[in-house]
Amino acid sequence: MSRILHLIASDSVGGPEKQLLHHGRDTRDSDYEIILGSFQDDHATAPDILTSASRLGIETVSVPGGIRPGLVDDLTQYLNSGHIDLLCTHGYKANVVGHFAAKHANVPWVPFVRDFTAETWQVTLYERLERNLVMRSPWVVCVSPAQARELGRLRRGRRAPLVIQNAVLAPKVTSLSAEPAPTREDLGFQRNAFVFGTAGRLSREKGHRSLLDAFALCSSAEDAARPADASAVAGRGPGGDGAAHTSPAAGNRIARLFRRISTKSSGLDEVHG
């Protein structure tokens, strides 16, 4: 049986983490043994993805985190002692550290490339290293065709990137699934009011701030006789502190709807509305 380690630097259970958890659970009876790994800073609690994986009976490994010379050595040691046959890395930190560790351990390596965000100078540095490495790696996986085309041009004749698209999983059928969808009247909105919401990771490159600023401009330009518009943002991430909302009373009504969604999906635990 081939042992495959999926390594991701994670501080929450978002879309990528959920994909890995489902993958690990769904391949239990296959010829592949999936191990989920993440980085853990000193004295910190275990990353949520590892806690969730353990509940599902998936083998996990926690690699001491931080930015330090021994980081590659620690991962290299586990690749050898854990008899890992293939290393798959997800995100800039795992891709950079994984490249060097896999090379030292003589283990095949497949990087999964997601968006380049440049959120901080540390992230920018990691992403520059990551881009140089994945341009030359034997294999690389992208999460969208557009990203694969862009990276494929940079690879200059090397093997084209594979595409494993971000997936939307069908909701699990539970007693909550039988509840009827709320109507505008249930939420207290008039029929012709404009309402929008967004749910997911809050980070700068996704443009939530621009979306909310544009919404505020459009709302202020509307006819005064029209019912008040409303917006809400649900999610978590580095952009959470900057998330704002318009029409507070109406926004609170949408927030109740998003809390109901988050209860069903257990993926959204912070709501701005």
Kindly report the average pLDDT value. 77
Strand order in space, largest sheet: 3-2-1-4-5-6-7
CATH superfamily of the largest domain: Glycogen Phosphorylase B
Unreliable sequence segments: 241-251, 259-273
- The helix-strand sequence is EHEHEHEHEHEHEHEHEHE
Instruction: Specify the CATH class of the largest domain.
Output: Alpha Beta
The domain count comes to 2
Number of strands: 10
| Percentage of residues assigned to helices | 25-40%
Shape: globular
Largest sheet, described in full?
7 strands, parallel
Residue fraction in strands: 15-25%
Question: Can you describe what's shown?
Answer:
- This protein has 273 residues and is of the alpha/beta class.
- It folds into 2 domains: 2-163, Glycogen Phosphorylase B (Rossmann fold), CATH 3.40.50; 175-272, no CATH class.
- It has helices at 15-26, 48-55, 70-81, 92-105, 121-134, 145-154, 184-187, 208-221, 248-265; strands at 2-8, 32-40, 59-64, 86-90, 109-113, 141-142, 162-163, 195-199, 230-234, 271-272.
- The strands form 2 sheets. A 7-stranded parallel sheet has the order 3-2-1-4-5-6-7, with helices on both faces. Strands 8-9-10 form a 3-stranded mixed sheet.
- Helix 4 crosses helix 5.
- Mean pLDDT is 77; it is low at 241-251 and 259-273.
